[in-house]
Design brief:
Blueprint (H helix, E strand, L loop, with lengths): L17 H9 L5 H9 L3 H16 L2 E5 L1 E4 L28 H9 L8 E4 L9 H14 L4 E4 L2 H10 L4 H11 L14 H7 L6 H13 L4 E7 L5 H18 L2 E8 L6 H5 L7 H14 L5 E2 L3 H4 L1 H7 L6 E4 L6 H4 L10 H10 L3 E5 L5 E2 L4
Parallel strand pairs: 1-8, 1-9, 2-3, 3-4, 5-6, 6-7
Antiparallel strand pairs: 9-10
Helix pairs in contact: 2-10, 3-12, 5-7, 6-7, 6-9, 9-10
This protein binds ligand V47.
């Protein structure tokens, strides 16, 4: 099962990790305590060997990417998350809402040629209701039938359903009928209520996020999942978060991919009120490896180059990740919070990153249908 040439134990220096290596070789599930060990051990290369062996067994040397476009239809948000630098209030001069025509005009731009995935998340705007989304999705699908619509965090679904005076179930049914095909994984942050109270007071709780994700899955709508790390949370909160995702996945199988999100610490209230240093390279790599080992039922783990840099995302492919997300074109949420990475990468740049890291670049759509990537 390991895919490495020697038994896993021979890559491990911290003897406390040996029982975990045995479990992994037997295909047994890791526990909460195992998760804590993975966060506390100094033997990062041993942890990487375990994560890479699981990655090789599942995906070989394949590394996925998507030609994608990121778009936020509004930045106006009535929920106030302390970590967010993107949000604007109704009367804020930087606030905007895109009309359906604005979105179409943007997608018509030649830089979006060949986009397979349109990933849209945004603020919680009090004036937007179901009719706006139905019209938006129908118009996009009529004009660009090949673009996959990946829209809404679980908290946006909850908010816009209530804002429209309908149930989340009806909201989803109507959006799916209009063209919604999957959902991104954002908005999960950290499930622990004590941490959540400090980083996103007023945001819907973990149960709401998980209940809406389950509802999506029961309707056949696949979603991704995330965790925001590197702020005030502790290892026990991260393990708890990951195991809650694993538990839901056991029941629904609806998560396509997990993405660890490294906290970007500029221009947001959380960084103004707490002294939080940027995440380090080893912290980012450990997050990928721990996810690969604990989330044994989620196929794809992303190394999200926007938040950890393209160079580290390359290395992440040997720490358990099998996907480096996509071309994106114009990322805003992380960049407004200080990300120093480019706003987007070309298809050729992504392919080069993957090949230079020693992996086979596989272009995919959001459902992991694959396409040859010749150049
Ligand atoms: O929902 C907000 C988080 C998310 C900050 O599903 C922040 O394929 C770090 O969800 N520092 C948006 N994170 C990004 C996201 C995502 C990214 C890549 C792939 C996928 C996918 C989803 O970013 C937000 C929030 O959870 N966020 N502010 C910040 N300062």
């Amino acid at each position: 099962m390991s895919g490495l040439s020697m038994p896993l134990a021979s890559y491990i220096q911290d003897s406390a990790l040996l029982p975990l290596a045995e479990k992994i070789e037997r295909g047994d599930r890791l526990s909460f305590e195992d998760g804590l060990l993975l966060y506390n051990s100094l033997d990062l290369t041993g942890i990487a060997a375990m994560a890479h062996s699981v990655r090789l067994a599942r995906h070989g040397r394949r590394a996925y990417f998507v030609t994608s476009r990121r778009l936020s239809y509004t930045n106006i948000c009535y929920t106030h998350c302390q970590f967010c630098a993107f949000q604007a209030h109704m009367d804020d001069p930087k606030g905007y809402v895109m009309s359906v025509e604005d979105v179409i005009r943007e997608l018509d731009n030649p830089e979006n040629h060949g986009v397979r995935e349109l990933h849209m998340t945004a603020g919680h705007h009090p004036r937007l209701k179901i009719e706006y989304f139905e019209s938006l999705f129908r118009t996009i699908k009529a004009r660009f039938p090949d673009i996959h619509l990946k829209v809404f965090t679980m908290v946006e679904i909850d908010f816009y359903a209530r804002n429209s005076g309908i149930s989340a179930g009806e909201f989803l049914d109507r959006c799916i009928a209009a063209g919604l095909e999957s959902c991104p994984g954002g908005g999960a942050e950290i499930f622990d209520p004590e941490v959540r109270k400090q980083i996103c007071v007023g945001k819907k709780d973990a149960d709401t996020w998980l209940r809406v994700a389950e509802l999506c899955h029961t309707k056949g709508l696949p979603t991704n999942c995330t965790m925001l790390y590197g702020h005030i949370e502790e290892p026990r909160h991260r393990v708890d978060h990951l195991l809650r995702l694993r538990e839901l996945q056991d029941r629904t199988g609806g998560f396509l991919a997990y993405i660890p999100l490294a906290y970007q610490n500029e221009d947001n209230e959380l960084s103004r009120t707490h002294r939080i240093l940027p995440t380090t390279g080893t912290q980012d790599l450990r997050e990928i490896a721990v996810a690969r080992l604990l989330l044994d039922n989620i196929d794809h783990i992303k190394a999200y180059w926007v938040m950890i840099t393209p160079g580290l995302a390359q290395i992440g492919l040997s720490y358990g990740a099998d996907d480096i997300d996509g071309t994106i074109v114009c990322e805003e949420i992380a960049h407004q919070a200080g990300a120093k990475t480019p706003p987007g990468l070309s298809r050729q740049e992504i392919i080069r990153l993957i090949r230079d890291a020693g992996f086979e670049a596989i272009e995919r759509d959001n459902l992991y249908n694959t396409y040859p990537a010749e150049h």
